[in-house]
Each structure stands twice: as C-alpha cells, then as structure tokens.
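Methods — Computational structure assignment.
A single polypeptide chain was analysed. Its primary sequence is given first, followed by the predicted tertiary structure written as structure tokens.
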Amino acid sequence: MNQSASDTHRFIRNSWLAWTLCGLICLSILINLGLSLTNPPANVSAFKKVGDIVFGFIPVVFAVLGALILSRQPRNVIGWLLMIPAIAFALPAEDYVNSFTSAPPVPPVTLFFALWLNNWNWLLLMFPVFFILLLFPTGQPPSPRWRWLIVFGLSMCAIFILLVTFSQHLTPDSGDWSVANPIGFIPDGALDGMYFLCLG
C-alpha cells in the first residue's frame, strides 16, 4: 500500500513538473513571437511573417509531446529529449544577437552569453533528435552494444561547446561582425573544421 502511494505521489510530482515546464516554454515562445511580430524588420513580406509564425510554434509541439511522455512515463528519457529543443528555442538568444547590426565598442556581458549560446544551441536540436531515433520507443538503446553511440554523441557535443567557449571570436549567424572572446585562445579555423565535421 505504501509503495502504491509513493508511486502515485511520484507520478503526480513528475506530471506537475513536466506540464509546468511545458507551460513556461510555451509562454516564453509566445512572448518572443509577439515581440518579433510587433517589431518586424523593414520590408518583410507577408509570406515571411506567416512562415515565422508557423516556425515559432514548432517548439510548442516538442514541449507538449515531451510533457505527455514525462507525465505518463517519467523514466523515459525521450520526454526530456523532446523538451531540450523546446527549451533551446524558448531562449531569445538569436533575437537578441540579431538586434545588433555591428559589434558594439564595449560589448555587454549579455551579448557575449547570447553569442556563445547562439553558436552551439543547434546541438540542442540535432543531437536530441538523433538520440530519439536510437532510443525509441522505450528510452533505452536496442542493446548494450549501442551505448557507445550515446557516449560518442555526448562527447562531440562537449568538444564543440568547449571549442565555442574558447574560440578567439564569437560571431552571429549572419557573419557580418564578430567580437573578440576575452577567454578565447583557440583559432577560429578549428571551430570551422568542427562545423564541417558535424554538418558536412
């Protein structure tokens, strides 16, 4: 009886946590989407606006699916793998970076953080989707022999984040400007090589 009550309590707690996180993600995405629509760039077509709205709701789908899985199967890591891309999209790092048309003379700390995050947050979409394919449907690899692939993927993520953290310059997606990284010592070419390895 005590075990059953404990399981019920754990189920309620995990369900509450999953849906609270989902709600916060959806709220953040709606705020970011509203701000981008009220302050659109000049000469943006209606087609582009509709595309931005549709694209903006994709993280909501990830968050809701993740919450559904976590609230019913809290030990299934696929729920968290769906939440991770939603969290990445909910952070307004890209919008903040794009608000700058050139590097400021004295970059604020928030710009360094946003550029750092914006240079590797695509990993939060690419690798969770890769792991979902490996771990579906139980949240476990097909056999223990596949675990090396998880270690390999996490190692690649860690290496890429370290390269971004200590690269000499931090650059937005447009590549029009960059800021010198005060803790950077790794040449920018090493980061380009890692991009080619991961995406090429």
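Note: The longest strand covers residues 169-170.
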